[in-house]
Amino acid sequence: MARRTLTTTATFAATAALLLTACGGGDDSSSSDDIKGADTGSSSPSASASASSPSEVKRPEITLPANFQLTFEDWTSSDPVEQAVLNDAKEQLRAGYAAITANEPDGGEALAFYDTESGLSQDRQWIKTYTDKDLTVFGKLPAFDPKVTMSDSKTAASLSYCTDESKAYSKNRKTGKVEGNPPGTDPEIFYIASLAKNKQGIWQNVSIRSERGGCSR
């Protein structure tokens, strides 16, 4: 299972999360089941310097079910700007999975908060690959090895990270059928996300791309 991603283009300007490949899903090629999105465009609020501190902004509450453990290993940085990127990227990823488990195909309030307009459009496509089939997710999904690269202006960033889907699964809400990755499939997914800082100081997801494999633990 995992964060299913959708292919749109092969460009870099990507998310992450939301992200993941589908738990039962397909081969390792760049099919619609493998890439969450690589659209470089963004019609979100301008990525200008924050007019107010992010701590002053009321953030949405995100709740995941107890049977789905999305964890973040070593998502820390001594640089406060990089840490802000990591914090918001974590919440964006949590918001995406919360929408799946809550059966919200539009992504819900939290995902709209952490996504640009283009990012939200991509994430809704990803979420609907679950909700349209009455699927939810459960198990354990660690996200690890995050690396942040800042733009010179400090208002845009790229974030790479990996996930391990070996203990994450999808389940049909009606039939209870459980699926995981097919035998022999590499359970680790490498993501590259593109983020922009909005006027409120929130680091929002612009787009993301993924590739199965390429991770090391």
Automatic annotation (TrEMBL):
Q: Which organism is it from?
A: Streptomyces vastus
Keyword line? Lipoprotein, Signal
Give start-end positions of Low complexity composition bias: 42-55
Q: Which PROSITE patterns match?
A: PROKAR_LIPOPROTEIN
Signal peptide span = 1-22
The identity of this protein, by name, is Lipoprotein
Q: Where is this region: Disordered?
A: 25-62
